[in-house]
Amino acid sequence: MSTATKPKHIGRNISRIRELRDMKQETLAEAIGISQQSISNIEASESIDEEKLKAIAEVLGVSVEAIKNYSDESVFNIISNTYHNTSSDSSTLISSSVNFQPTFNPLDKLIEAYEENKKLYERLVQGEKEKVEYLEKLLKGK
């Protein structure tokens, strides 16, 4: 009794990877320079020519081999392992999801806010001085 391996459905793999990338058929089609209907037909076919496959792989940001060897099980295993490796308990999960490095220096932002506040205060004081001068002029004129 032999077990025949089922051939990979390349079109389905393209569809899955595109969906994982949160990309619409139209977006993929525009990037490659073909119609959305053509992408639909490609995703419905079991095989695809290498040139189109290379172009699709480039737009999806994966290798041709990744498309050919894609399987839902491997994606779920990667997600599951990533989840289990980063969270042995719920406190680790919370700390790992909150532990990120900002792309700016918070101290610089604080200094910028202070400087802006200082400038606004100086403008407010200048406006009040001008108002007082104007009112004094009005009183002297009477």
Automatic annotation (TrEMBL):
Keywords: DNA-binding. CDD domains: HTH_XRE. Residues 14-67 form the HTH cro/C1-type domain. One of its GO terms (molecular function) is DNA binding. InterPro entries: Cro/C1-type_HTH, Lambda_DNA-bd_dom_sf. SMART domains: HTH_XRE. This is XRE family transcriptional regulator.
